[in-house]
Amino acid sequence: MPAVVIVGAQWGDEGKGKATDLLGSRVDYVVKFNGGNNAGHTVVIGDQKYALHLLPSGILSPGCTPVIGNGVVVDLGVLFEEIDGLEARGIDTSKLVVSANAHVIADYNRTLDKVTERFLGSRKIGTTGRGIGPTYADKMNRLGVRVQDLFDEKILRAKVEGALELKNQILTKVYNRRSVEVDEVVDELLGYVDRLRPMVADTSLLLGDALDADQTVLLEAGQATLLDVDHGTYPFVTSSSATAGGACTGSGIPPMRLTRVIGIVKAYATRVGEGPFPTELFDADGERLRDNGGEFGTTTGRPRRCGWYDAPIARYAARINGLTDFVLTKLDVLTGFERIPVCVAYEVDGERVDEMPMTQTGFHHATPIYEYFDGWSEDISGARAIEDLPVNAQRYVTAIEEMSGARISAIGVGPGRDETIVVHDLL
User: Fold this and answer.
1) How confident is residue 41, by pLDDT bands cut at 50, 70 and 90?
2) What are the tens digits of pLDDT across the range 102-131?
3) Catalytic annotation on 41?
4) Could you state, in order of their start, the residue ranges of all structural domains in the chain?
5) Catalytic residue among 21, 28, 41, 228
6) Fewest 10 Å CB contacts: which of 216, 221, 352, 416?
7) Cα–Cα distance between 3 and 228 in angstroms, integer?
8) What is the pTM of this model?
């Protein structure tokens, strides 16, 4: 049975939560495989809106088992706060499973994240300050605390002591902050043990057994391709692997088990934080996209930078991830624009470049080359088939599909769970 990957094909906030929720009732497991509570998904069901930060979107689908994979970094305080918030609204979270190998965000990671960003000043990355990057750094430096370590106090204390030997030197001597006490960190983490223990499992074994039993597994990325630590607009990226390759390392599912890779792409483009963004708008059109699209971060509330659709970026995402399908979201936000530009290539140092420039310098200096499409004014929220869309909207979808490197299999025409045109089955 299939293991299906959903990834963001731009800079995040494309609507992956809605796409996952669209499939949630038809899959057995939904796995978050990277990131932490530094990004969020918003899912609208009826008149209810749910903002998810750390939990997989499958938590909202009855009968589906949500899994936090080994590639995720977990802030346990946020985890239980989010669980409590959903249960207060009548959502059953009892099926949640957490990987024993996932890394835990300790308080000193959050502190270092915030003070480092302030120290960088104009060179800041634009992190959320939630300790994500420092926790992944600890993981790579083999100083990290994993979920399983909380069940052995001796190991937990030894790991915290080892981490703080260096970090306290940095906090006190570089940043003029107070040192962190080992007991403070250990006591806080041990306070979660009783509630956490029943959720923890060997999730790679669980998911392998599920696939062997002909069950369907959906792997859900946090962030997006252009924020991937290897393939994104480095250094203005996240600290994890947000591409299809990361789905394998972050879940323990081998590549040969993947049957479909779905890229989520907005009908325009947005970005949060620092870094290059060739089609970014600084005019009334940019404000209009932000207001019409509700472009404010699910996790931070920060206003998102807005711009026009970038076809070279979509092609890049299709190639890096091996996309089989696109889900195009927020087409309705473009309603009312008389003319809609689409970036088809860039000009870099006076030359046309049809693909994403190889170097950071080239991409920073890329100027978009646009083709223009006639807009539409009709309300499209009731459309449930391509033929229901205005002719100009159909032409827009067809054009960007031809430019983007994979077929468009679903189109979002509104925020609601049912406000979607399904062109091709995604499973």
Assistant:
1) low
2) 999 999 999 888 887 776 666 666 666 788
3) yes
4) 3-98+200-262, 103-194, 265-422
5) 41
6) 352
7) 21
8) 0.91
